[in-house]
Design brief:
The chain is of the alpha/beta class and 394 residues long. 36% of the residues lie in helices and 23% in strands. Bound molecules: S-adenosylmethionine (SAM).
């Protein structure tokens, strides 16, 4: 359970690391400029750009730089709310695990807190950034933690030496942050084919396959793993979940979607997964899109819901638009086009007429849906919109 004293001790710990909390970007950036020289900032920006390419050497260089004493508090203060959201959830789930691994622990901000909270448990933090591990070791010593060890290990190269009751991997399993994932079978469905080639390619591109294999081999029978990555889009979430499931890891808890602030920006990450090895009969994996905030469709209230004369009768930009489109009455096609984009996604655009009005429907294999419904007399507006989309994509 997350309790107030746990949360309070996390705030104190983050302050000990020199992290500050901000609610305004302007305040944060003025502090950042006071702390870092233009040369530091330029260096950081350049290495962050290179890291995005996903190359191992660039990733290590970036994390080594972020471990420098003047940069560390400034950069990691941006993630203050992330530490609060994740740290408190992870720490509330150690249960009776004795040996706990924090994979990709970075400079050990959370690992040192976990160890300080649970002096009776043994913690190991591993990371492949030598500078991050050096800082982690120094801080653990300053905190007088003797139940914590840090090691500089690249799990992609190393051999499994230890076994753990619980492994934590938060924002550390998936490289290639911008990888789109795997597309659905076609624009009419959110379902993904069980295609081993596609899955393997995803696991290789994102590095998750080799990392999970290593971690899984380091987990005791019935051991648990807590994993949290940027997998909110269904196209990334499905292959991520399949990567866990095919390694015999099953859901021990219903996955939790987590929203936290990155100063003024809202981050929707996760879900937060707790999985367990070889137990059997736990919860089912869910591969359907998450419920969206699309406007519910009520055909009897289409006109009365809006006071704006130019507003469409109905508009929905979420996955639930598909169900509404499927249930339009007496749907008749006027024009349609389906094509393949250079990145492989299949896109469908359709203009039609239904009992409820004229409509424009767009759908693609990366789960985007858009439905706009207008009065029949305003169909010409949708026709122009349709032409614009079609000439833009063909
Ligand atoms: C985004 S940081 C996350 C740090 C920390 N887990 C947190 O939540 O704040 C990702 C870390 O994973 C480490 N990492 C990535 N791949 C790794 C690998 N194959 N072996 C060891 N560490 C790795 C990186 O060096 C980096 O420090």
């Amino acid at each position: 359970m997350i309790n107030d004293s746990l949360v309070q001790s996390l705030h104190s710990h983050l302050a000990w690391w020199g992290l500050k909390t901000f609610t305004s970007d302007a305040d944060y950036f003025s502090w950042q400029h006071a702390q870092l020289s233009p040369a530091d900032l330029a260096h950081l920006t350049a290495l962050a750009g290179q890291k995005r390419g996903g190359e191992r050497g660039h990733e290590i260089a970036f994390y080594d730089l972020t471990a420098q004493s003047q940069i560390l508090p400034v950069l990691y203060s941006q993630r203050y709310e992330y530490y609060c959201a994740i740290g408190s959830r992870v720490a509330a789930r150690f249960g009776n695990a004795d040996r706990i691994l924090d994979f990709g622990c970075g400079v050990g901000i959370l690992t040192t807190w976990y160890a300080a909270q649970y002096p009776e448990k043994q913690f190991v933090g591993i990371d492949r950034s030598p500078a991050s591990i050096a800082v982690a070791q120094e801080k653990a010593q300053k905190l007088g933690l003797n139940n914590l060890q840090f090691e500089c290990v690249d799990v992609e190269a190393g051999h499994v030496q230890e076994s753990y009751d619980l492994i934590v991997a938060t924002h550390a399993l998936m490289q290639a942050e911008h990888d789109p994932g795997i597309p659905s079978r076609n624009w009419q469905t959110f379902e993904r084919a069980r295609d081993a080639k596609q899955q393997t390619a995803f696991e290789q591109r994102t590095g998750i396959g080799v990392r999970l294999d290593w971690l899984n081999a380091s987990l005791v029978q019935k051991g648990r793993m807590i994993v949290f990555e940027k997998t909110r889009q269904l196209a990334r979430c499905v292959p991520f979940q399949r990567a866990l499931a095919t390694r015999g890891l099953e859901l021990a808890e219903a996955p939790e979607r987590i929203r936290y602030q990155l100063i003024e920006e809202v981050a929707d990450d996760g879900p937060f997964y707790v999985v367990q090895k070889a137990v059997g009969g736990l919860l089912d994996w869910d591969e359907s899109p998450e419920p969206d905030e699309g406007r519910p469709f009520d055909r009897t209230r289409l006109k009365t819901d809006s006071h704006d004369p130019d507003a469409p009768l109905y508009e929905n930009h979420g996955p639930s638009a598909q169900g509404v489109w499927e249930h339009l009455r007496d749907r008749r096609l006027i024009s349609e086009t389906t094509h393949q984009e250079p990145d492989g996604r299949q896109v469908h655009v359709e203009l039609g007429q239904a009992e409820e009005g004229a409509y424009l429907y767009c759908a693609n294999t990366f789960d985007q849906r858009q439905l706009v419904l207008v009065e029949p007399a305003r169909r010409v507006m949708l026709e122009a919109y349709y032409q614009e989309i079609v000439s833009g994509v063909l």
